[in-house]
Amino acid sequence: MDFVCPTCNKQMPRSLQFIVPHTEEHIVNEIKKKHPSWVEANGVCKKCYDFYKNQMRPE
Ligand SMILES: [Zn+2]
User: How many domains does the chain divide into?
Assistant: First the structure.
């Protein structure tokens, strides 16, 4: 069964699912701010991970 990214709602192969490491709690918090019902264990796709990671970075 394919993986549906909880933050962009795109369906993709499960191999593209990315679980945010606990060491990157700031990214977890940022995703939760936008998606309050998101659960860490559900993961996000690599694209969303990169997106939120980049948001953390100052201009
Ligand atoms: Zn996504």
Answer: 1
